[in-house]
Amino acid sequence: MHKKSMGHFLCPVCGREYDSDEIIWKCTCGNFLDLIYHPEFKRRKIEQREKTLWRYFEALPVSEKSSTVSFKEGFTPILRSNLFGRDLFLKLEFLFPTGSFKDRGSSVMISKIKELRVKEIVEDSSGNAGASISAYSAKAKIKCHIFVPEGAPEPKLSQIQFYGAEIHRIRGSRDKIAEEARKFAKKLYYASHSWNPFFLHGTKTFAYEVCEQLGWRAPEAIIFPLGNGTLLLGSYIGFDELREIGIIEEIPRLIGVQSSACNPLFRAFHENLEKLPEIEVRKTIADGISVAKPVRWKQILKAVKETGGEIISVDEEEILEALKELGRNGLYVEPTSAVALAGLRKIEDREELLIPLTGSGLKLGERMKEFL
Ligand SMILES: *Cc1c(COP(=O)(O)O)cnc(C)c1O
Ligand SMILES: [Zn+2]
Predict the structure, then answer these.
(1) Which ligand lies nearest the alpha carbon of 131?
(2) Ligand 1 centroid, distance to 259 Cα (angstroms)
(3) Pocket of ligand 1 (CB under 6 A)
(4) Which atom of ligand 1 is nearest to the CA of 233?
(5) Is pLDDT above 90 for 169?
(6) If you measure from the C-alpha of residue 367 to the centroid of ligand 1, how many angstroms do you get, rounded to a whole number?
(7) How buried is 156 (Cβ within 10 angstroms: 0-12 exposed, 13-18 middle, 19+ buried)?
(8) Which ligand is nearest the CA of 13, by number?
(9) Is residue 2's pLDDT more than 60?
(10) Domains of the chain
(11) Which residue in 214, 275, 359, 365 has the most C-beta neighbors within 10 A?
(12) Residue 3 confidence class, pLDDT cut points 50, 70, 90
């Protein structure tokens, strides 16, 4: 069997390149790295495989099948639905082993980390990413440290602990916690969902699935809840590759929705800012997208602009209403997931839309009562 090419790392700031088998998580200039990767595959071969995200093996940056760390996740259902009087597609991303789409990124990233023979990793997260990376680390027998803010939702912390990861509680802002994690990662490997490019090459499987499930075509627009942008950027990469291969002609409009309590990307987009604005973060029920300084913010804005997308901001009231609308239709998700539907109401009804429902309401346990 011939070996597939694993691509290379590229620093988007200084342009340095590295072999993608090097055990590094940042450029010598300090910036994060991108993985430049050009997959090749045959549709017919893929269609015969098991319905998991690993059916796109040729598109995933892992050399050996034996490296895969998987719970047979992915290929989540797409439903036709009508919400707030609008026809749309929903993709049920809360049906993942750990309860959120983050498993796409974790499965691919942890598989690669296992292949690189890394034994101990660090991540910082207030919830779903930490839980997801902990679960896959447990399966791969990799030691995992998760840095969390004080006040992170307790049910998610229990989940992380059940998977056997070591929790480090840090007081301070999310940026401070990320900084502490990176300091800790000087000697270890930083397996961050927002920094690590392998994570995005896992979330890109969202685009592959959407395309295949709709009959190898793309919808006109997709609306995402937007924090660090891992699902939006992964989708951009995925659709871009599908375009390069010649399966689709155009990338869908990528639309991000933020909570008005924390909307740096909304402001940068609409005010055409050269720098991320310093914002004061207010409390929001959409805690999963409360990210004041998304590290890949420039890439997010570029992807949104290039695809003719937009960034929308919604209030707490609007998120609550969307959450309830979903419940009334038998869909129990966490408030962060309702943000995209809240944003839908601010978009003209003229195109075929798809919304991912990103995380399960079951993850919040008793806390969901507050939103009734
Ligand atoms: C992480 C997460 C998001 C936001 O994704 P980003 O990659 O940070 O933009 C949305 N919903 C849920 C449930 C999440 O866990
Ligand atoms: Zn660099």
Answers:
(1) 1
(2) 12
(3) 100, 102, 128-129, 225-231, 288-289, 334, 336-337, 358-359
(4) 7
(5) yes
(6) 18
(7) buried
(8) 2
(9) no
(10) 78-100+199-371 (3.40.50.1100), 102-197 (3.40.50.1100)
(11) 359
(12) low
